[in-house]
Structure to design on (362 residues):
């Protein structure tokens, strides 16, 4: 099958990792093109076609439509997957102009929170089918964007788990030495970009509420690019509580490294479509404590829960874990099995390709 995966940009984010992983898997058995304005990874440079879809204005829009027409015809494209709303709008205009030979399209929604008032619903193009990456996103599509349930396909996000293997003792010690983590500390991690939506400030407040004897036993390791205003805010917050010894910022780091040295993963996100980091913790057999954001309904038996913006909940969970580090052992095994059965890139790509084939045949 000749497939176009279209995105405004492919950056170091949940959507970016999804697009990159899907392309890597699909191109093994299909002819795949990745059309985007920016691509920051390496694995799919061979199929990347740079095209600025984000340009505003009617002239740019029409130029993009005709550029797509030329590209689709030259490469005999069967279907387009649209990863951002602007991409979907471009294809809406495309199929309006070329109504006599419409392109088969599939939209994917990566979040449960986009504008959904009447004007936005009118310009939202869902194509032939819509992929929801979690049950929460599916509910949002039905309740807020008024998409018929029969048009929605639930396909959970998947990740490449081939490198998510346990660290050796030597590897663990090397990484802990790198970040100045004492050997006897309980390591709590937060993995992902540093953004207010991820709720790291809530975790900091939760640690601050701990009795001193518990503060002395834990260190929180946080990944993500520190070149942002939110990082500066977090550092000021940490300093105001005198928690400098309790937090380590690694910058962007390998998933295996940060989870490999961690005893507990806390995800206090204020909003998610379907957290890839949660699934990564499942594969690395690190117990997960998370908020009821996107993906929770699909994985609720695999993680413990905290309420959004409730640092007191985090404090209670940390105390319980420090007192009994084996409290989540059964849950961890259940989470690992769930991830193996439902959340690999291979499974995600297989389900996506089956959907594409059904759309092509209709």
């Amino acid at each position: 099958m000749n497939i176009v995966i279209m995105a405004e940009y492919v950056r170091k984010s949940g959507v970016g990792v999804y697009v990159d992983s899907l392309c890597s898997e699909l191109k093994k058995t299909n002819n795949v093109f990745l059309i985007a304005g920016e691509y920051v990874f390496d694995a799919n440079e061979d199929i990347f076609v740079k095209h600025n879809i984000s340009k505003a204005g009617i002239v740019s829009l029409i130029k993009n439509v005709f550029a797509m027409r030329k590209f689709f015809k030259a490469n005999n494209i069967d279907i387009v997957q649209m990863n951002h709303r602007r991409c979907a709008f471009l294809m809406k205009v495309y199929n309006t102009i070329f109504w006599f030979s419409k392109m088969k399209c599939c939209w994917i929604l990566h979040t449960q929170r986009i504008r959904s008032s009447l004007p936005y619903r009118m310009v939202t193009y869902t194509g032939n089918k819509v992929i929801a990456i979690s049950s929460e996103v599916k509910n949002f599509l039905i309740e807020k964007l008024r998409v018929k349930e029969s048009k929605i396909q639930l396909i959970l996000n998947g990740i490449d788990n081939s490198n998510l293997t346990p660290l050796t003792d030597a590897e663990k010690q090397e990484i802990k030495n790198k970040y100045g983590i004492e050997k006897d500390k309980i390591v709590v991690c937060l993995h992902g970009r540093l953004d207010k939506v991820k709720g790291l400030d809530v975790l900091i407040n939760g640690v601050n509420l701990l009795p001193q004897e518990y503060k002395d036993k834990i260190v929180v390791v946080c990944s993500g690019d520190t070149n942002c205003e939110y990082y500066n805010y977090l550092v000021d917050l940490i300093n105001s509580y005198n928690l400098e010894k309790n937090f380590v910022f690694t910058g962007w780091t390998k998933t295996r490294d940060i989870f490999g040295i961690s005893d507990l993963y806390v995800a206090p996100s204020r909003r998610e479509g379907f957290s890839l980091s949660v699934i990564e913790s499942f594969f690395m057999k690190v117990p997960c404590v998370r908020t009821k954001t996107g993906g929770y309904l699909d994985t609720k038996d695999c993680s413990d829960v905290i309420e959004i913006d409730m640092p007191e909940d985090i404090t209670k969970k940390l105390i319980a874990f420090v007192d009994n580090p084996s409290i989540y052992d059964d849950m961890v095994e259940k989470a690992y099995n769930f991830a193996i059965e439902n959340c690999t890139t291979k499974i995600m790509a297989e389900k996506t390709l089956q959907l594409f084939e059904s759309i092509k045949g209709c």
Q: What stands out?
A: The two ends are 15 Å apart (CA to CA).
